[in-house]
Amino acid sequence: LDPFEGREEGGGGREEARRLIEEAREAPRRAALAIAGDPSLLDKLSHEGLAGLDAIARVYSLLPLDLREKARRIAEGLVVRAALGYAGRRALARAGGEPVDVDVDRTVERAAELGRSPEALSFFTARRRGRAYALVIDRSASMAGFKLVMGALAGASLAYAGDRVDDYCVLAFNTSVERLKGLRERRDVEEVVRSVLSLEARGYTDIYTALLEARRELVSHGYEPRAILVTDAEWTAGPNPLQAAPLFRQLHVVLVPSKYLGFARALAELGGGRVVLVRSIAEAPERLGELLRE
Questions:
Q1: Of all residues in the chain, what percent are helix, strand and coil, respectively (each to 5)?
Q2: Which class for 263: exposed (0-12), middle (13-18), buried (19 or more C-beta within 10 A)?
Q3: Which residues are CB-neighbours of 25 under 8 A, at least 6 positions away?
Q4: What is the Cα 70 distance to its own chain's centre?
Q5: CA geometry: angle at 158 spanning 144 and 252, to 5°?
Q6: Which of 7, 72, 82, 272 is the most buried (most CB within 10 A)?
Q7: How many Å apart are CA 293 and CA 94, to the nearest integer?
Q8: Which of 215, 152, 153, 159 is nearest to 185 (CA)?
């Protein structure tokens, strides 16, 4: 289900947006040219929920530079609201679950900082359950656009996982590893999503080094090593990552459209996790949720 269901734009704008969504799926370059000719199409996509986010993700890297910032801002809001909407539905569905308390003071602080209402509320950390995840996002040259949006959505999903996740960190890698959020580091979901969407996809893919860094971060804070790797599994640099996978208690692989499904499956199996192939943004919240419920 789309958490944006019921939010509609009237008449012709909605029909125009739906045509653009279909074109982005089938001919993203043509869709990007249409948006370049009429930037207001981005605003129309902002009313289309996960389908609109999927379209923006597919055309993002093809847009002129002056439009990418607008597209990134719209995608940021859509990602946060999608993850929050899915988490809210899951919370309501959990019978006898613990309530998650809203941090009113922090929410008000953020509103003052932003000069507007934040896209999402701040929450107190749920009761400790001893489980943390490293989100490891491939930002190599083959991971532009759609694939980085998937990483941002995974980060927001971890942030709103409630009592299923005690803490999380976010690492982005090519041949080097960048820490976007550390364990025990307080960062708002919007900041984390913005950091991921602002990444430039470039360089080669050293999965082995990224996995070792993720394990080091978790173990140094006293957690069992659990990670979610978002990648197309096109390993192009560094030692064989299959050597690092068994070092994890649980290693899930979120595979964006790729021909390397077999390699991704081997990584997940050696890491005691599983691989999920995500072909569209619309299916992402549910698939990510499945991993966090295990």
A1: 55, 15, 35
A2: buried
A3: 54, 55, 58, 280
A4: 18
A5: 70
A6: 82
A7: 12
A8: 159
Give me 60's structure tokens.
């993002």
Contact (CB, 8 A) for 254 and 146:
no
Residue 97 is which amino acid?
Answer: G
For residue range 212-249, list pLDDT tens digits in order: 999 999 999 999 999 999 999 999 999 999 999 999 99
Residue 92: C-alpha distances to residues 41, 88, 118 (Å): 34, 6, 22
**Terminal Cα distance for the chain, rounded:** 21
Contact 183, 219 (CB under 8 A): no
Residue 255: strand pairing partners? 231, 277
| Close Cβ partners of 224 (under 8 Å, ≥ 6 residues apart) | 130, 131, 218, 249, 250
Picking from 245, 242, 233, the residue whose alpha carbon sits closest to that of residue 277 is: 233
Q: Give the distance from CA 3 to its chain's centroid.
A: 16
The count of other CB atoms within 10 Å of the CB of residue 8 is: 13
Single-letter amino acid, residue 252: H
d(CA 74, CA 56): 9
177-181 β-sheet, strand order: 177-181, 167-173, 132-138, 226-231, 250-255, 272-277
Q: Give residue-wise pLDDT tens across range 117-176.
A: 555 544 444 444 478 999 999 999 888 788 888 888 888 888 887 767 889 999 999 999
Q: Is 226 helix (H, G, I), strand (E, B) or coil?
A: strand
Which amino acid is located at 111 in the chain? A
